[in-house]
Specification:
This protein is α+β, with helices and mostly antiparallel strands and 329 residues long. It contains ten helices and seven strands. 42% of the residues lie in helices and 13% in strands. Strands 1, 2, 3, 4, 5, 6 and 7 form a seven-stranded mixed beta sheet that branches. It starts with a helix and ends in a 39-residue tail after the last helix.
């Protein structure tokens, strides 16, 4: 198997099934259409990884921003209970429009729970860990195009610009056809490394914007990313719009930096092996980086137990490190 064929196979394993992606978009669009029927809703915007086309398999949730008419809610945007009131208002609308019992536009929502920034709407059994959800976040559009969103815990409203990230990702994809697919590969990779706690997928996506090249093939693209990210992560990972600060304050930066450095070393060796014509060795190294689902031939048996010794002309490589699953939230 050639290197590019192996990456094609692995990408198909990482990508969500077309039917499941279409179903997620249909559910998102149903919510958008229902919310736009409300007189105080001026916009309904898809957000999150599905809108950036960087979603990872399986798709269990989608995000929607419901932009409300400010004059219709003059108390919104001020400190105090208005953040909670906005979330309650959005919840009541969702139940009335899409509630399981008597929704006017559909009967998809079993339970709608206001959280910190958004209303989490369960379309499946809420006790099922893989239940499909739609997060509806109320917002107020500002004069500069940014959004003011509620923060229930702090009883305030904060600025955000998720559309900026959508545009950045779209621009990078236009520059290089492999950008979005490799972002999905890297999101999968984060599940294969050992760090303390979880790594938000948005952390990987923002680092990809900073560290991924704009041309070349996939192996060299990943090698470039891992090498650059090992240094870049020391600077912290912040909202690219410059509004929301650090994306994950509890991130294990040291653990992630070490994982990037180890992956960079293995990627260097994989690219060197491929350049020297040692395709099988390169594939095995990429498997050590990306996990067992990356296709590679079995490792040859060690000499002395019935298998022929490896040719001395083959470059020496380090013994691949064991890769363990990290706990995911």
């Amino acid at each position: 198997m050639r290197i590019d064929e192996a990456f094609d196979d692995f990408q198909r394993n990482v990508n969500e099934d077309v039917g499941q992606t279409r179903l997620a978009r249909d559910r998102r669009d149903l919510f958008k259409k229902a919310l736009l029927s409300e007189p105080d809703v001026t916009e309904a915007i898809g957000s999150g990884s599905l809108s950036r086309s960087t979603q990872l398999k399986p798709i269990n949730d989608v995000d929607i921003i419901a932009v409300y008419d400010g004059p219709e809610h003059p108390d919104w945007g001020s400190a105090g209970h208005s953040a909670e009131h906005a979330l309650d208002h959005a919840r009541d609308q969702v139940n009335r429009l899409l509630g399981k019992t008597n929704g006017s536009h559909g009967n998809e929502v079993r339970l709608a729970l206001p959280r910190n920034h958004a209303v989490k709407c369960f379309l499946d059994d809420p006790d099922d860990e893989s239940a499909f959800t739609v997060d509806v976040m109320p917002a107020l559009r500002q004069a500069d195009g940014t959004l003011l969103i509620p923060e229930k815990r702090s009883q305030t409203w904060v600025l955000a610009d998720p559309e900026h990230l959508i545009d950045l990702v779209a621009d990078r994809q236009r520059d290089w056809e492999h950008f979005r697919p490799l972002v999905r590969v890297l999101k999968q990779w984060r599940r294969e490394i050992t760090v303390t706690g979880r790594i938000k997928s948005l952390v990987i996506e923002v680092l990809a914007l900073d560290c991924m090249p704009t041309s070349g093939n996939r192996p060299n693209g990943l090698r470039t990313f891992f090498t650059a990210a090992a240094a870049r992560v020391n600077e912290g990972v912040r909202d690219p719009a410059g509004l929301c600060g650090e994306i994950q304050p509890d991130l294990d930066y040291d653990g992630l930096r070490i994982a990037f450095a180890e992956a960079a070393d293995l990627a260097d060796r994989a690219c060197a092996a491929a350049a020297a014509g040692h395709t099988d060795q390169a594939l095995r190294l990429w498997q050590e980086i990306l996990g067992d689902s990356f296709p590679a031939p079995p490792k040859p048996a060690s000499p002395g137990i019935g298998a022929p010794a490896l040719s001395t002309s083959t470059p020496a490589f380090i013994t691949p490190r064991p890769i363990k699953d990290a706990p995911q939230g």
